[in-house]
Design brief:
Elements: E1 19-20, H1 25-35, E2 39-44, E3 47-53, H2 54-60, H3 62-66, H4 74-78, H5 82-85, E4 93-94, H6 99-108, E5 113-118, E6 121-127, H7 128-137
Parallel strand pairs: 1-2, 4-5
Antiparallel strand pairs: 2-3, 5-6
Keywords: CBS domain
Protein name: Membrane protein
Pfam families: CBS (PF00571)
């Protein structure tokens, strides 16, 4: 029987890889590939102001749409800054949000990652992958 009120803090990633507004998009691409992740919160003074996904980068890079293996042309990156590419209307949750509530939000929206905040400061991130892993563990 699955526990109903387990908080999302038990499955979220706590040491979040993040970007600042001043960071270049080339840095974002490096982080995506190095850590094999798909979403990076964008912060200003520890406060979350946006979310950059790998698909956001692909959307502005024409080369990658055609040739998957080729490096994205960094010239394209120099034409944009993070604030132009990131998603600004983000939904965030708190550490006490239950896993069930988190799943409901992710299932009803278009995105696949939610920032977790405490007093407006970013303290974690939870993704659909985290949820699936948690659910699979319930069957063991």
């Amino acid at each position: 029987m699955m526990k109903k009120n387990v908080p999302v803090s038990t499955i979220m990633t706590k040491n979040v890889i993040k970007l600042n507004l001043k960071d270049e998009l080339t840095k974002a691409e490096t982080l995506f590939k190095k850590h094999n992740i798909r979403h990076i919160p964008v912060v200003s003074g520890g406060k979350i102001i946006g979310m950059l996904s790998y698909s956001d980068l692909l959307r502005i890079s024409f080369a990658d749409a055609v040739y998957e293996d080729e490096e994205i042309d960094s010239v394209v990156y120099d034409m944009f800054d993070i604030s132009q590419v990131m998603t600004k209307n983000i939904v965030s949750i708190t550490e006490n949000t239950t896993i069930k509530e988190t799943a409901e939000i992710l299932a009803s929206k278009e995105f696949h990652a939610l920032p977790v905040v405490k007093d407006e400061q970013l303290v974690g991130i939870v993704t659909t992958t985290d949820l699936i892993k948690y659910l699979l563990n319930q069957y063991n």
